[in-house]
């Protein structure tokens, strides 16, 4: 969201809020610029006049705006894979990684990660709540996990 707001400020001299940037990301955001360019009208404050102003943003611009954060995500994935024990790394390369959280809903993020890491990636079912539900299940069955030594020390 910050990257989108900074891009709009730099390219269009328009100040938009965090909520607007998130709406843009959800509405037309994509990790890979789509073949069919989507657009969205965005309202903010013109940095030159100080007055409210509307512009039309395109999905290609949003894809450009989020390239740095996406590169950081790719770097983090690569860093984790480099530190993963060989047996587990083989499983990851075989089965892939599952994307969770709200960011997993970014159009094309799974394909972007495959292109830049070579590891299959898929979006979890209900990615916004799956981590919380999984944590709840782990806590609910903690004694079983502990007996099977499936917890970190």
Architecture overview:
- The chain is an alpha+beta fold and 153 residues long.
- The chain folds into two domains: 64 residues, ATPase, substrate binding domain, subdomain 4 (Actin, Chain A, domain 4), CATH 3.90.640.10; 75 residues, Nucleotidyltransferase, domain 5, CATH 3.30.420.40.
- A three-stranded antiparallel beta sheet has the order 1-2-3. A two-stranded parallel sheet has the order 4-5.
- The longest helix is centred in the middle third of the chain and has 17 residues.
- The model has no long low-confidence stretch (mean pLDDT 91).
Describe the secondary structure blueprint for this structure.
Elements lengths: L1 H11 L1 E2 L2 H11 L10 E8 L5 E7 H7 L1 H17 L2 H10 L1 E3 L9 H9 L3 E3 L6 H11 L1 H6 L6
Q: How many structural domains can be distinguished in the coordinates?
A: 2
Structural class: alpha+beta
Helix content: 40-55%
Oligomer: single chain
Question: What are the main properties of this structure?
Answer:
2 domains, Actin, Chain A, domain 4, Nucleotidyltransferase, domain 5, 5 strands, three-stranded antiparallel sheet, elongated, 153 residues, two-stranded parallel sheet, alpha+beta, 15% strand
Question: Nutshell version of this structure?
Answer:
By secondary structure, the chain is α+β, with helices and mostly antiparallel strands. It has helices at residues 2-12, 18-28, 59-65, 67-83, 86-95, 109-117, 130-140, 142-147; strands at residues 14-15, 39-46, 52-58, 97-99, 121-123.
């Amino acid at each position: 969201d910050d990257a989108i707001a900074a891009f709009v400020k730099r390219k269009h001299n328009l100040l938009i809020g965090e909520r607007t940037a998130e709406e843009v990301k959800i509405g037309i955001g994509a990790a890979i610029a789509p073949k069919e360019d989507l657009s969205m009208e965005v309202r903010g404050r013109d940095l030159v006049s100080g007055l409210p102003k509307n512009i039309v943003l395109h999905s290609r611009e949003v894809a450009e705006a989020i390239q740095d954060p996406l590169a950081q995500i790719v770097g983090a994935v690569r860093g984790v894979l480099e530190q993963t024990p060989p047996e587990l790394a083989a499983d990851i390369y075989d089965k892939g990684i599952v994307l969770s959280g709200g960011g997993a809903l970014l159009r094309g993020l799974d394909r972007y990660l495959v292109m830049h890491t070579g590891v299959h990636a898929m979006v979890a079912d209900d990615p916004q709540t799956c981590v919380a539900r999984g944590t709840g299940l782990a806590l609910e069955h903690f004694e079983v996990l502990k007996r099977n030594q499936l917890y970190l020390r």
